[in-house]
Amino acid sequence: MVAIGSPVAYSRPAYAFPPDVFFMVDFTTARRAMIDSQVSAAGVTERRLLASMGRLPREIFVPEDRRGLAYIDDLHALGNGRFLPSPAIFARLAQLADVKETDRVLELGAGTGYGTAVLASLAHHVTGLETDTNLADQARANLAALAVLNAAIVSGTVDDLAEQRFDVILVEGALEAEPADLLTRLSPNGRLVTLIRRGRVAVAHRYRPGRDGFKKETHFDATLPALFPVAHAEEFVF
Asked: Tens of pLDDT along 50-79?
């Protein structure tokens, strides 16, 4: 686990920041404003989570031409249908997961590794799963640059994880239906957190193993693109 109080091992030469962006944007101030005006304002109170997001350089996880906008209240398109969720939505999902220092975490939709890095500061170990091989490579480079040692990026699907079980499963994207295949990956005291589409709105769900199946809780409404987009039949209006 990466200690919250320790400095981030961030090596600037590893990233080619455009001079006009790097020197014009005060990322420290932007990061503080993100916490105060977006994350805390959305009801996130978990101190370890706030501390982690307050020190992690989000700007290295977004496309180069958007680094000056890294801390805005919006998602960032990463290409090939993948995205980095907005800070508030990610934080609310992570808080709902109630990550402990002893937890083994599976994160679906790792993208360039931002969520993986945040979760690694809270958990014992994080496996970030990313289907896009180019993004998976970027995520590995980002985690290496930040000296995150208790996380691994896997390029592939859940089927590539053999029979591993996890204390927390966090899905960074909306699903179309209840994730029955993922629920079987939970440990006996595990939590699975995901957004599930209900028409045009997605609802945050938390699942826990119970005596007679899985207990389901619904929490807040949010908007994120589908993690695994499904082609719907075209609708005609007469």
From this structure: 999 999 999 999 999 999 999 999 999 999
What is the spatial distance between Cα 234 and Cα 190, in angstroms, rounded to a whole number?
38
In a domain, 5, yes or no: no
Residue 223 has pLDDT above 50, yes or no: yes
d(CA 89, CA 234): 30
pLDDT, tens digit, for every residue of 95-121?
999 999 999 999 999 999 999 999 999
Which CATH number do you get for residue 92? 3.40.50.150
Q: Give the total number of structural domains in the chain.
A: 1
CA distances from 29 to 24, 57, 58, 127, 191 (A): 12, 11, 12, 30, 34
Confidence of residue 5 (pLDDT cuts 50, 70, 90): very low
Cα 187 from Cα 199, distance rounded (Å):
31
15, burial (CB in 10 Å: exposed 0-12, middle 13-18, buried 19+): middle
